[in-house]
Amino acid sequence: MKWFRSYVSSLSSLMFLIVCILSGLGGCRDSPFGSGGFLTPPTQSLRATLNSPVADLEPRFSYDGRYLVFTSDRQSQRGIFLYDVPNRRLIDLPGLNQAKTIHEQPDISADGRYIVYISEERGKPDVFVYDRVALQSEAITENILRDVRHPTISGNGRFVAFESNRSGQWDIEIYDRGLNVEPSLPTPQSAAVESPKATASPTQTNP
Description:
By secondary structure, the protein is mainly beta. The protein has one helix and eleven strands.
């Protein structure tokens, strides 16, 4: 019977290996960045991770896939977070998240410089654009007294589209930030801008 149990064990191992190869899911071994398969990190209690024990939502990639912007409830309120995919770390966003304020529905420009999002820090939902180089946010819908939602930003960072109901129904509006906006374009090497305060253990919410 020993030879039979050994045979069954070897056959099971062989079948498992075949399933792994055919499925191509990358779940049988670690998959490095760029080799295909899932790259999802496990849920951790540490703050400098992609997934946490609370809701992590609304992911949007930069043009080259290096940066992933998303929302999370990990600081007892919904805020905007930026994840460096190949380096597996969060990037600090100084001045973006404000205390006791919801920030959500983000999108990101081509090289990761500009982040557009919805915030209620002025008492109503507004569309904001955050500049990772200037470390400043700009509200672009201050004069719209009705609701706005679901913003998206063009790859070069100049145009922002969003939904507004100021006409009595939901319409799509386009905002031109102007010719003086420094473009957010991917370089030939796909090198993205880096925040001068990038850190592996960010404090995302300002006091």
